[in-house]
Amino acid sequence: METMSYVISMLEKIVNIPSPSGYTREVMQAVEEEAEKFGCSFAYNRKGGLIIEVPGQKQEVLGLSAHVDTLGAMVRSITPAGMLTLVPVGGYMMETIEGMYCKIHTRTGKTYTGTILTKEPSVHTYDNARTLERKARNMEIRLDELAESADDVKDLEIAPGDYISFDPMFVHTKSGFIKSRHLDDKASVAILLGVLKDIFKSGHKPERTLKIVISNYEEVGFGASWIPEDIEEFLAVDMGALGDDLTGNERKVSICAQDSTGPYDYEMTNRLIAVAKERGLDYAVDVFPHYGSDVGAAMKGGHNIRGALIGPGVHASHGTERTHEKGMEQTLKLIEGFIGLPFDGRS
Questions:
Q1: How many other C-beta atoms lie within 10 A of the C-beta of residue 158?
Q2: Which end of the chain has the smaller Cβ count within 10 Å, N or C?
Q3: Distance CA 43, CA 23 (A)
């Protein structure tokens, strides 16, 4: 499927653009450039989120969202030995970033590389290397620079408050798996760009006018706390959590019935299930008790909307994640069915 080749290439492109929550200008510009190719109009909100508009057959407005911000960290302090301590941006286990290559983005425009380690990183040297608790206070960054003191680091113009991004390690395997950090939620951003491509190529208008919100603070809880007031229904395209007693997998699109903020809209969720059945999609309906989305942020922001959530199954979310091209394709097809694009049965 031509569209899926585009989606995966776009995912590889944007996943390699550093964008921890709040540090998203460059990746937003990349998404904006793609939206322009498809004739879409767009605007930015005051928080730096992007809103892409697609005229529909009706004036009624359906909102779609995906978030382009990712997990990351910030420099907390500089040690006397020239190491950097950190604080997390977003919620993840420290074990998932131990040994990761990273970049430090200074507020003066410089970028440096380094590696995230514990403060006792070698079993040859430290008695407690294996048992040291993996928490932020016990982690630090070894810079790839000749910096052996705090003054050496300051001379590099690195300072507390500088952003730290993680190497995504993107790989697309011959068997169709895509393993990378930050599939949450750049996989769904790429899928929405694929939907725009199909709308543009086919010439078919969606049934309702679309306002696609690309949010930039979702990982810290307030990505879509403001959305355009004319949105009546809001569909978050995020990711399907996997594991435990859940029924989803990486090759399915997950439809979330409830997350930590409570149940999603009953009728919207039923319509998504009906579209999945009508189009013969591989889907799962699950409940994610440790999960939140842009819909929840919008509702907490006081918006009078109906909301639902879907996304491709992503294994080891907020860690070294993995999905499959089939799960991404099922998600794209479900979105296109929900917005009323014709279905030709091709895969």
A1: 25
A2: C
A3: 18
* Amino acid identity at 261: T
Q: HSE of 239 in the Cβ direction (CA atoms, 13 Å)?
A: 30
**Active-site option among 218, 250, 321, 336:** 218
Residue 241 in tokens: 């959590």
* Sequence-ordered list of residues with C-beta below 8 angstroms from that of 126, at least 6 positions apart, any chain: 120, 132
Structural element, H or E, at residue 272: helix 266-278
Distance separating alpha carbons of residues 184 and 238, to the nearest angstrom: 7
Give the per-residue pLDDT at 333.
98
Burial track 184-219 (b if 16+ CB lie within 10 A, e otherwise): bbbbbbbbbbbbbbbbeeeeebbebbbbbbbbbbbb
Closest Cα to residue 334, out of 233, 230, 216, 194? 194
Tell me whether residue 264 is exposed, middle or buried, using C-beta atoms within 10 angstroms of its C-beta: 0 to 12, 13 to 18, 19 or more: buried
- pTM value is 0.97
Beta-carbon count within 10 A of 241 CB? 24
Q: Which of 263, 270, 201, 209 is nearest to 2 (CA)?
A: 201
Q: Is 13 helix (H, G, I), strand (E, B) or coil?
A: helix
List of the chain residues with pLDDT < 50: 347
> What pLDDT is stored for residue 347 in this prediction?
43
φ and ψ at residue 173, rounded to 5 degrees: -85, 160
Can you say whether the dihedral through the CA atoms of 200, 203, 205, 206 is positive or negative?
Answer: negative
34 included as an active-site residue: no
CB 63 within 8 A of CB 180: no
C-alpha span between 344 and 94 (Å, rounded): 45
Beta bridge partner(s), residue 137: none
CA distances from 296 to 97, 119, 167, 253, 304 (A): 27, 37, 29, 20, 12
Identify the sign of the CA torsion 268, 217, 253, 11: positive
